[in-house]
Amino acid sequence: MTDTVSLIAAALAAGLAGVVGLLHWPRPPDLDAPRWFRLMLALLLRGEVEASGGTPEDWQAAVERWVPWKGARPDDLSHHPLLVDPVDLPRAYDLRRWLGTAGWEELAGWGAGTSAAVPEAVGRRLPVIWMLVGEAPGPDLLGALASVVGEVLRVPYDGPDVRAMQAALDGLPDDADPRFVLVGAGPGIQAVLRGLHANEGFRDRVLAVVSVAGVLRGAHQGLSEADVDGWMAEHFTQRELDVEIDTRVPYAALQWIDADGNGAFGLPVRDATFPEPRGEPMVRESIDAIDLGPLPVDSDPVRVARALVTFVACWVTSRQGG
Questions:
Q1: Measured between alpha carbons, how far is 295 from 269 in angstroms, rounded to an integer?
Q2: Are 133 and 192 in contact (CB under 8 A)?
Q3: How far apart are CA 272 and CA 210, in angstroms?
Q4: How much of the chain is helix, strand and coil, in % rounded to 5?
Q5: What number of helices (H) and strands (E) belong to the chain?
Q6: Residue 252, beta-bridge partner list
């Protein structure tokens, strides 16, 4: 009887300790991902405009042209959600909180070509290899990313399987144990997802996944509905893509739109967004599906790459507690 009572007491104590631990576990800050990403684009644009001698009105026109935002007030700069002084934003949005030595002014300086503080801070905070998979119509964002981050693995797309990704991994030095950010363009995102699903050890070393106009729903660019919707329904789930670390890996998607606001190159915006991953009881959530929203198909790929690199570094660091 005494042993039974002791076991019950120990179990209750362990349960209470677990609850207390959860209550005190650091919670990631509440951040609006698409707005944060677009604010980064807006500040890069501010630097470009100021470097060319432009006015605040020129900056407003540039933001309205290159960083579309539903509900923006084009007749009133002070009410546009992206034309703000970053100092007035909640502290969670402060880049310096996550990058340490670089903030919003340094980001504008990067756009102006007068400061390299942001990419240097990103390199320190997020020392990863960027694996870039596939090609897609539109701006050469993968090429721009390669020029911005330096160390990349370029993986050609040869269908939705894992062979090309595995060959790239096999080519790394035996003593290397890097962390990765994976970027899939067009149908290449399907190869990325299959590579993650097939290799649990690799999955645990991936800090973020980015889809650039990726085929995530429907039949497009040589992929059938079975290739995409069938596979995603079965495998894009919290259980199938779980990771060992106790965090949610961002799966961020951005899309290209034409002058009429439609998905460019026959890929509807919705079909280039991650579906909500299926969850199951008692399964920890490892996927954080994020929609960064659409950008004009004639966007400057270097500007978008700079914003994307900054966003990924800040988002990942904010989820890890800085």
A1: 10
A2: yes
A3: 11
A4: 50, 15, 40
A5: 13, 6
A6: 210, 290
Are the C-beta atoms of residues 100 and 124 closer than 8 Å to each other? yes
Question: 63 with 42: CB under 8 angstroms?
Answer: yes
- pLDDT tens per residue, range 158-184: 888 899 999 999 888 877 789 999 999
Place of tokens 């310096």: 96
**Closest among 66, 1, 67 to 34, alpha carbons compared:** 67
Rg of the chain (C-alpha set): 21
Q: Which residue, chain included where needed, has tokens 């684009």?
A: 41
Q: Report the alpha-carbon distance of residue 228 to residue 236 in Å, rounded.
A: 10
Separation CA 208–CA 284 (nearest Å): 17
- 120-171 per-position pLDDT tens digit: 999 999 999 999 999 888 999 999 999 999 889 999 998 888 999 999 998 8
How far is the C-alpha of 192 from the C-alpha of 189, rounded, in Å? 5
Q: What is the pLDDT of residue 247?
A: 86
Beta strands in 119-273 (DSSP E): 128-133, 152-155, 179-185, 206-212, 249-257
Q: Which helix (H) or strand (E) holds 71?
A: none
Other Cβ atoms within 10 Å of 195 Cβ, number:
26
CA distances (Å), 218 to each of 9, 101, 262, 282, in order? Answer: 54, 43, 16, 30
Helix 301-319 vs helix 141-149: crossing angle, to nearest 10: 60
114 secondary structure, DSSP code: S
Q: How confident is the model at residue 196 (pLDDT cuts 50, 70, 90)?
A: very high
Cβ atoms within 10 Å of 237's Cβ, excluding its own: 18
The position carrying tokens 């507690």 is: 321
| pLDDT of amino acid 14 | 42
Please tell me which residue, 69 or 115, carries the higher pLDDT value. 115
Secondary structure (DSSP) of 98-164: HHSS--HHHHHHHHHTS--HHHHHHHHH--EEEEEE---SSS-HHHHHHHHH--EEEE---SSSSHH
Cα 74 from Cα 101, distance rounded (Å): 34
Q: Are 256 and 139 in contact, with CB atoms under 8 Å apart?
A: yes
Instruction: Please indicate whether residue 201 or residue 78 has the higher confidence score (pLDDT).
Output: 201
What is the distance between the alpha carbons of residues 200 and 313, in angstroms, rounded to a whole number? 23
Which one-letter amino acid corresponds to residue 213? A
